[in-house]
């Protein structure tokens, strides 16, 4: 999720805030941002939806 950290920063949202909103842990978000984990499509869609992004301007 190459752009997650950048987009999250532009929106002024911390990893913890995003994680809490979705119901996940902060380390899970960090793992996606650093590439330690690769999200399933359904996970990526949930993040895109939570950040109110369109799929075309998404996280990849």
From TrEMBL:
<feature type="domain" description="HTH cro/C1-type">
    <location>
        <begin position="4"/>
        <end position="58"/>
    </location>
</feature>
<dbReference type="Pfam" id="PF01381">
    <property type="entry name" value="HTH_3"/>
</dbReference>
<protein>
    <submittedName>
        <fullName>Helix-turn-helix protein</fullName>
    </submittedName>
</protein>
<dbReference type="InterPro" id="IPR010982">
    <property type="entry name" value="Lambda_DNA-bd_dom_sf"/>
</dbReference>
<dbReference type="GO" id="GO:0003677">
    <property type="term" value="F:DNA binding"/>
</dbReference>
<dbReference type="InterPro" id="IPR001387">
    <property type="entry name" value="Cro/C1-type_HTH"/>
</dbReference>
């Amino acid at each position: 999720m190459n752009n997650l950290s950048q987009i999250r920063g532009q929106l002024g949202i911390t990893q913890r805030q995003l994680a809490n909103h979705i119901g996940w842990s902060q380390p899970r978000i960090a793992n996606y941002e650093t590439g330690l984990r690769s999200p399933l499509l359904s996970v990526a869609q949930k993040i895109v939806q939570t950040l109110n992004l369109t799929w075309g301007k998404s996280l990849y």
